[in-house]
Amino acid sequence: MKTVIQRVSQASVTIDGTVKSQIKNGILMLVSFEEGDTAEDLSWLAAKICKLRIFNDGQGVMNVSVQDIDGEIMIVSQFTLHASVKKGNRPSYIKAAKPETAIPLYNKFIETVELELMKKVKTGTFGADMKIALVNDGPVTVIIDTKNRE
């Protein structure tokens, strides 16, 4: 799994001109799955994101988590995170999981994050042509790959 996490003051997903979901203060997470991702990857990433100290404390230091601020999370599927540009100029997405694998992982990941966060998360729609609007707060952007847990 690969994910791009952005601390946002607001974010929204629009599909066919209609806002599907929106959040205020919290995390916009773009996530991509690959063959071989496991329930353990989902659990590890959900816990890491919910506890990641990327929000400012009273002294302006990034020292509190989305849970600590009672923030929101929006999860959007984005298979292009697995793009390989090693050869030529046209990205290859061969490492991205096929929909029959990725959709159940996406749905299970949403459930796993909700259990960890102890509240509902907002989402995009898997496979839809989505327009994402966001105000990146900071900016703060973190990239996490479950295959490289350094």
Question: What report would you give on this structure?
Answer:
With 150 residues, the protein is an alpha/beta fold. The protein has one domain: D-tyrosyl-tRNA(Tyr) deacylase (D-tyrosyl-trna(Tyr) Deacylase, Chain: A), CATH 3.50.80. The protein has 2 helices and 8 strands; from the N terminus they run E-E-E-H-E-E-E-H-E-E. Helix 1 (39-51) packs across helix 2 (99-117).
What secondary-structure arrangement, pairings included, does this model have?
Layout: E1 2-15, E2 18-23, E3 26-32, H1 39-51, E4 55-56, E5 62-64, E6 72-77, H2 99-117, E7 122-123, E8 130-145
Parallel strand pairs: 3-6, 6-7
Antiparallel strand pairs: 1-2, 1-3, 1-8, 4-5
Helix pairs in contact: 1-2
Question: Quick one: biggest sheet?
Answer: 6 strands, mixed
How many domains? The number is 1
Overall morphology = globular
CATH class term: Alpha Beta
Order of helices and strands: EEEHEEEHEE
Q: pLDDT average, as an integer?
A: 95
CATH topology: D-tyrosyl-trna(Tyr) Deacylase, Chain: A
Q: Between the first and last Cα atoms, what is the distance in angstroms?
A: 14 Å
Number of strands: 8
Coarse structural class = alpha/beta
CA radius of gyration: 15 Å
Share of β-strand residues? 35-45%
- In the CATH hierarchy, the architecture is 3-Layer(bba) Sandwich
> How much helix is in the residues?
10-25%
Low-confidence stretches: none
Number of helices: 2
